[in-house]
TrEMBL record:
Pathways per UniProt: Carbohydrate degradation; pentose phosphate pathway; D-ribulose 5-phosphate from D-glucose 6-phosphate (oxidative stage): step 2/3
Family under the similarity heading: Belongs to the glucosamine/galactosamine-6-phosphate isomerase family. 6-phosphogluconolactonase subfamily.
Function, in words: Hydrolysis of 6-phosphogluconolactone to 6-phosphogluconate.
Keywords: Hydrolase
Name of this chain's protein: 6-phosphogluconolactonase
Top-rank taxon, per record: Bacteria
NCBIfam families reported in the protein's UniProt record: pgl
Example GO BP: carbohydrate metabolic process
Length: 265
């Protein structure tokens, strides 16, 4: 059974980014101590990138053997490989370029100068995921490898990754990756994991700050329909953790704010 959401609240976006970064480093180090490697799925967006920058600044960054971390992305803007809009490029600038990575473990989505369109890039990413699932022994039927921690931002419309309310991507149940056309958040063409692929992750951490996110966060945690409120459909296998600042947490249902539902920091 997948995990019901828990909520952790920090005072402001800077503290939130630093706290989430420390939590990620500790989690990756613990996973590596247990089985040598760890897999994280990155997100784009302001806090997702701020969090990566904070990982680079954390004293504990050396606790992780970054050459044995597998990196995937939850979504990507379908633009040229060297466009500053690319989530990959932003993640590299914020953190990845400073780490000693194994390039074979880094899995960016295809770019607009490599594929004819978002659908072709999505199909190629689905193949890459399936191959990684085969290699990591996830089983003959597995379409995605084991994701230990999957990071998500959330939009003011409650989108997650590039799954927007009422659009085809959030309704997709067969595929693991979709091309997105006509995204309300620019750029209009994107590639995204689907909700099923996202929810295969052991732990999902949704990171959000600022008052423009409060309504979306509140609706998602109140149990709205995922087609209208995509973030409401997010459930990790073991943990669904909302990492919020006080402004983004303004409309969190009170029942989720009692001591029992708050994870230990
Ligand atoms: O590529 C993207 O744009 C995303 O991955 C997207 O899902 C993002 O995480 C949210 O829109 C939050 O972004 P902000 O934190 O910048 O509002």
């Amino acid at each position: 059974m997948n995990a019901e959401p828990t909520v952790s609240i920090q005072a402001d976006p800077a503290i939130l980014a630093a706290t989430a970064a420390g939590r990620l480093v500790a989690k990756l180090a613990a996973l590596q101590a247990e089985r040598g490697e760890a897999t994280v799925v990155l997100t784009g967006g302001t806090l997702g990138i701020a969090m990566l920058a904070a990982v680079g600044e954390a004293e504990s960054v050396a606790d992780v053997d970054w050459s044995r971390v597998n990196f995937w992305w939850g979504d990507e803007r379908f633009v040229a490989k060297d466009s500053p809009d690319r989530n990959e490029l932003q993640a590299r600038a914020a953190l990845l370029d400073r780490l000693a990575l194994d390039p074979a473990r880094v899995h960016p989505f295809g770019a607009a100068d490599e594929f004819t369109g978002p659908d072709a890039a999505a199909a190629a990413y689905a193949d890459e995921l399936r191959e990684a699932a085969r290699v990591d022994g996830a089983g003959a039927d597995a379409a995605v490898p084991r994701f230990d921690v999957l990071l998500l931002g959330i939009g003011p419309d409650a989108h997650i990754a590039s799954l927007f309310p009422e659009m085809a991507g959030i309704r997709e149940t067969a595929r693991t990756v979709v091309g997105v056309h006509g995204s309300p958040k620019p750029p209009p063409e994107r590639v995204s994991l689907t909700l099923g692929a996202i929810n295969s992750a052991d732990e999902i951490w949704l990171v959000a700050g600022g008052k423009d996110k409060a309504g979306a966060v509140g609706l998602a945690l109140a149990g709205a329909s995922p087609v209208q409120v995509p973030a409401a459909g997010v459930r990790g296998r073991r943990q669904t953790l909302w990492l919020l600042d006080e402004q983004a947490a303004a409309e969190v249902p009170r029942s989720l704010l009692d001591g029992d539902s708050r994870p230990e920091d």
